[in-house]
Amino acid sequence: MSARERVAGTVANYVDERTGAAAWMKKNLQKVFPDHWSFMLGEIALYSFVILLLSGTFLTFWFDPSMRTVVYEGSYQPLKEVEMSAAYASTLHISFDVRGGLLMRQIHHWAALIFMAAIVVHLLRVFFTGAFRKPREFNWILGIGLLTLGIVEGFLGYSLPDDLLSGTGLRIAQAIIQALPVVGTYLSFFAFGGAFPGEAFIPRIYTVHILLLPGIFLALITVHLMLVWYQKHTQYPGPGRTEKNVVGYPLMPVYMAKAGGFFFIVFGVTAFLGAVASINPIWLYGPYTPGQISAGSQPDWYMGWLDGLVRMAPPIETHAFGHTISWNILIPGLIIPGILFTGMALYPFIESWITGDKKEHHLLDRPRNVPNRTALGVMALTFTLIALINGGNDIIATHFSLTINQIMWFSRIGIIVLPPLAFVITKRICLSLQRADRELVLHGKETGRLVMLPHGEFIEIHEELTPEKRYTLTQHEQPKAIELVTEDAGGVLNPKGIRAKLQARFSAANAENIAKPTAAEVKELEGGHH
Amino acid sequence: MKFISKYRRHKGALPILIMLALTGLGFTFSAATAAPASNTMSASAKSTLVEEGQTIFLKGCSSCHGLNAEGGAIAPSLIGVGAASVDFQVGTGRMPMQDMSQQAMRKKPVYNDEQVAALAAYVASLAPGPASLTNEQITWERDGNTADGGELFRNNCAMCHNFAGQGGALTQGKYAPTLMGVEPKHIYEAMITGPQSMPVFSDKIITPEEKLSIIKWIKAAESEPNLGGASLGRVGPVTEGLLIWVFGLGLLIGIAVWLTAKAR
Amino acid sequence: MSKELEPLADPGLPEHIHRKADIDPIAAKRAERQVAILFSLSAVGTLLFIYSFFFIKVDQFIFLPILGNTNAHQLGIGLGMAAGLFFIGIGAVHWAKTLMPDQEVIAQRHEFKSEPEDRDAFVKAAKDGAEAAGLGRRPLIKRTLIGAAALAGLPGVLMLRDTGPLPGKELEKTNWKSGTRLVTDPGDRPIKASDLEVGAVAQVLPELLPGQKRTLEDIGKDAVLLIRLRPAEFQLDEERLSWTHEGIIAFSKICSHMGCAVALYEQTTKHLLCPCHQSTFDVTRAAKVIFGPAARPLPQLAITVDGEGNLIAKQPFTEAVGPSFWERSS
């Protein structure tokens, strides 16, 4: 036994005698993780969060979250002796008078953008593969919660430096609060400590940004990961992969090296971006004052779709009985996002109600095999994308020789017309792909090799698929429509009435699929060929 | 003299000759009349310039602006717009317009400096208006203050021209152009004449000294190196978002694909 | 399931194919070297960071394609840090991929559902516990507990009361009073009508009284945009026309939609555009909304001149400036 092994043994003994951890560790070091690139997306988000904690802590060493007025005396000449808030001045100080400060600021901001982007693609992966189904509904809801908090946390973060752009963002946030019926004015005065902008808001959101929300994040992420651990990861279908097993690499050493290595890779890429690409150059924006504005004022991308919705809203306000309701703010700013996020959170339950499927699922769906869900996802994505495009309509207009009015009208009409269109097209594409799969299983791959038969007929040689490939393409279950029971045998009407009807309608649409080849069909063809 | 005759067919030869001739003429006259100020042009030199300007005007501008610059259906009257306006519009290549689109674009000037000066003199002779300026008169380096200029810029200019002078969108396809690479005199002239969609910034509202500060800030922004890496166009979060999706996430997903691919 | 609909059978996990490094010691050695090189590159990155941090001056610039004229210090430490981290990761992954065992293993899943006996026992225990506490039998205790718990949350909300003052009529007030002089922002110079040519604009604020200091809250309500047109261009009713002076018209600069500064004035079209959400207002028609999400015109400030010819406010704003709120009556 080498010295190193002896030390390791002693340490293990010491810990185990006090915690009894060895049994648990033994089991979990051999925990199996399936390998697929799309399973790394959530990890990107996780690692970005760690990077955000590290870089954020660095920034707090110098940042002064105060809106008291100071005169700038730092080394950035174009703002010399300009009056500004201490928050803005200290951000300039971090950028220009702390070595590595600007790098850290840029890493922090880039990491935030990657964090949000990774959450979104992770969510899309989970959605389109049906990984949210039983038993993982709760983890899906946690994920939606993390996405929502991420948007808020990001917004608060870029509001802290109190520059002209972020101040404009705060002004808009304040207008949304103020637009709330009945309580809006009061909430706004309490939040801002009086009239906008006041001196209270930035110190307050600082505490929320660096303490409250990161704490909640940490707790939610822990539960999110523990559930993944406990429920074991889902896996893509394939030979040897069933609902009852999980096939992959053990945590120790392969997965640990890969996942650990990936953390360094994500950090490295973020640091690279921080080194070579400028982000949020607050020194160019100038300090915030409510009387100033810059052309092309947009939020960060994860808020951009909300801003796009607000831009395209119709100019409607109700004035009645001495009160005002701003629909032009409430509908795009609160009601639509509210519906969208609630719908997203409840989706696992909605789908399970439609399909009547209450089984556990550990094998993922191929998106084409669930045309309705895939089409719905693409529809929601189209909606958000149009809103996002409209959120940058001024920049798009100047760079592509369009007019903001054209883009606005395109978005206003497109946001109503295009999502349903996307639904229909996606569903058709899915069914076509199913048909292609069927062809492939039954007739094999087209090789492009032509052969002339003795009687002069040309045929193309089809190469048969391997049994593994065939299995992968046919392993899925195809849902059956729920039959509508209007009245039972005794002639009593179904008490669920309209709900049952709706369920039957949706379920029928959901069951619309191209029948997958059966073993019998395959066998028959094999016999015919040879 | 061989040295000079060699360049007689050079494209700059004619303007230089005209310049020399005019200067010579001017000097001769001023010497003859013993005028105290040698800086101002003599009356007859001026009238020659006006005549020359009128010739250019009739040939290049009158089809839209009218034979007497009184304006037409598609172009405004130029009476009273002053030399500054001509120097800006023609000197930045905006006029003559290439096509009747929404807005005249900055492009390579059609006329050279002397022709612009002649045109300006002609338009100025129609009715008084703001005089044109030379870059030497715009003493922004000496008299401007960058920080004050930034304050003024953010209050008066940034809403259209963007926080870093990169330009921005206006309604119906019109736009505020970028201010990068614009000559100081043209920036100044634009402020006092209000070309196209741009409003006028009167000298009492933004004093000449403040205008110099604005120019100094614009020049500082123009020459400011990229303090934090590639500037991404200095247009705010849109390009940042684009970069993170295309490059940032694209690269990370690419690495994830490599990471999970089976080694051979 | 009928015989015809039977799906294809699962052929089972495909056979494991060995990598080159598993069977060829030379390939394994090569992979080992590659990993070592990657780790060394990381060390080089860290050295670059240390060098740049101490020896490249913070005001040193370097011209590079795409990046332009870039700060060398920032670039040096950034690239050093990036390489230091990135290559550790790439090395570790390469190691895992080429040299660590790549045989996939199978673990079995277990249903999460507890055994029926356990579940029944749990339900029974919970029921018995509740029974023993007597919650069902003593409704008085239950009701008062629920009431008290609901009330106990109230202090948490009430304590937030002092985060800010009550709004009162604050949103409807500005510092514009009858006779307040208009002064330039920045500069604080009074303005005469003749100072503005046709087509000119001015950003103005109310003049400060001696000893007064202007806060951002003031600017957020008081900022006004002054525009001069030809009087004939106005299409205003009698009253609104009387609020202008020799073609000079004044509007609140704070957008009636969400409070951004509306100051993009197009001289040719006489339109005002808000850069935040592209609401467009027609100046000739008292800032009527002609495009975008804003629902109300910008409030107009009545102006006139005093004895010295300086522009002054004729009266305060007749409506609240800025975005809408519940208590707003029109």
UniProtKB/TrEMBL annotation, chain A:
Transmembrane stretches, start-end: 44-63, 109-128, 140-160, 172-196, 208-230, 262-284, 329-350, 370-389, 409-426
UniProt membrane topology term: Multi-pass membrane protein
Entry-linked Pfam families: Cytochrom_B_N_2
GO cellular component: plasma membrane
Source lineage: unclassified sequences, metagenomes, ecological metagenomes
UniProt key word Ribonucleoprotein: no
Protein name as catalogued: Unannotated protein
Organism expressing this protein natively: freshwater metagenome
GO terms classed as biological process: respiratory electron transport chain
The UniProt record lists the keyword Iron: yes
Residue ranges annotated for the Cytochrome b/b6 N-terminal region profile domain, each copy included: 11-237
Subcellular location: Cell membrane
MF terms (GO), sorted A to Z: electron transfer activity; metal ion binding; oxidoreductase activity
Annotated keywords: Cell membrane, Iron, Membrane, Metal-binding, Translocase, Transmembrane, Transmembrane helix, Transport
From TrEMBL, chain B:
UniProt xrefs under InterPro entries: bc1_cytC-su, Cyt_c-like_dom, Cyt_c-like_dom_sf, Cytochrome_c_Oxidase_Subunit
Record domain Cytochrome c: where: 48-127, 144-222
Descriptive protein name: Cytochrome bc1 complex cytochrome c subunit
Originating species: freshwater metagenome
Membrane-spanning intervals of the chain: 242-261
Gene3D superfamilies: Cytochrome c-like domain
Membrane-topology annotation of the record: Multi-pass membrane protein
Keyword flag Iron: yes
Keywords: Cell membrane, Heme, Iron, Membrane, Metal-binding, Repeat, Translocase, Transmembrane, Transmembrane helix, Transport
Coiled-coil ranges (or none): none
Enzyme Commission number(s) from the entry: 7.1.1.8
Keyword Ribosomal protein assigned: no
Any GO MF annotation of the entry: heme binding
Record field: catalytic activity: a quinol + 2 Fe(III)-[cytochrome c](out) = a quinone + 2 Fe(II)-[cytochrome c](out) + 2 H(+)(out)
GO terms for cellular component: plasma membrane
Top EC group: translocase
Subcellular localization, as worded in the UniProt entry: Cell membrane
UniProtKB/TrEMBL annotation, chain C:
GO molecular function, one term: metal ion binding
Stretches assigned to the Rieske domain: 221-312
The UniProt record lists the keyword Transport: yes
Membrane topology, record value: Multi-pass membrane protein
Ranges that cross the membrane: 35-56, 76-96
Subcellular location: Cell membrane
Cofactor: [2Fe-2S] cluster
Any one GO CC term of the record: plasma membrane
Pfam family, one: Rieske
Keywords: 2Fe-2S, Cell membrane, Disulfide bond, Electron transport, Iron, Iron-sulfur, Membrane, Metal-binding, Oxidoreductase, Respiratory chain, Transmembrane, Transmembrane helix, Transport
Keyword tRNA processing: no
Protein name in UniProt: Rieske iron-sulfur protein
